[in-house]
Amino acid sequence: MFSLKQYDYIFIHREATPVGPAFFEFIAARILKKKIVYDFDDAIWIPNYSEANSFFSFLKGYSNVKHICRWAYKVSCGNEFLCNYALQFNKNVVYNPTTIDTENYHNILKDQNIGEFVIGWTGSHSTIRYISEVLPVIKELETEYDFKFMVISDLKPEFELKSLVYHKWKKDTEISDLLSFNVGIMPLIDDKWANGKCGFKALQYMALGIPAIVSPVGVNTRIVNNRINGFICETPEEWKLALGSLLKDRKALIRLGENTRKKIEDEYSVHSNARNFINLFS
User: Fold this and answer.
1) pLDDT, tens digit, for every residue of 219-262?
2) Domain boundaries, the chain
3) Parallel, antiparallel, or unpaired: how do β-strands 183-186 and 118-122 relate?
4) Residue 225, Cβ neighbours under 10 Å: how many?
5) In this predicted model, what pLDDT tens digit does every residue of 109-138 receive, in sequence order?
6) Helices (H) and strands (E) in the chain — how many of each?
7) What is the Cα 280 distance to its own chain's centre?
8) Are the beta carbons of 34 and 4 closer than 8 angstroms?
9) Is 218 left (phi over 0), alpha (psi -120 to 50) or beta?
10) Partners of 119 in beta bridges
11) In angstroms, rounded to a whole number, what is the distance separating the alpha carbons of residues 65 and 74?
12) Which of 162, 171, 266, 281 is the most exposed place for a label (fewest CB within 10 A)?
């Protein structure tokens, strides 16, 4: 706070004040008169918490989001749902999708020709509940095919599956762990919180040449082109058909995988969005 006077712009991702009123943001925007570029990639104005952090949830200033939007010079949002919320309070809103570093981090492609078949999911324990949407499908598939269902997370899931393999998420092994997937899934419930999500799971899978199978919620239908670089599935029948088709047809899996990387490089890479980001500061 004591060094802010020397800067022309201040970029705030999600929040600068973690609890209570937006004290730091108010000082920066209203007292110091700085140009705030405010960025968020979740529906952070909607209370959403797990049992692990529910005790502290009452301290969160969920209404801060609309105030910071009003004070901001520009608002940067990761999907159209978030943009529409921000536009209620600020007309200078920019769609700035979540991007992937395809040159320095997600820079290896999955070899779909080798190894046992792995269906994978990655994410925090607070979002693991979404897997319940497809658990019955996975159990059905276990009776027909041989595969592993891998979960990469901070905590081990509480459900049980014959095919379940758990890997604790670690930064230094994240890419190698993801590369064990043949297909990555992103099931969601169609609610306001899920509509605010920016599809990072699907982007990660696809950047590594791994087809994504997703629910038709929010930005997912923009990221995944159905049957071209993945599948968009709404019903249990669609999920079973999509997963089953890839389990029994490795050539189809390879074909989808070849299309995933190009989609990310063209639309969701750091390189392809550099100008869009730089223009926030003009």
Assistant:
1) 999 999 999 999 999 999 999 999 999 999 999 999 999 999 99
2) 4-96, 118-267
3) parallel
4) 15
5) 999 988 899 999 999 998 999 999 999 999
6) 11, 10
7) 22
8) yes
9) left
10) 149, 183
11) 13
12) 171
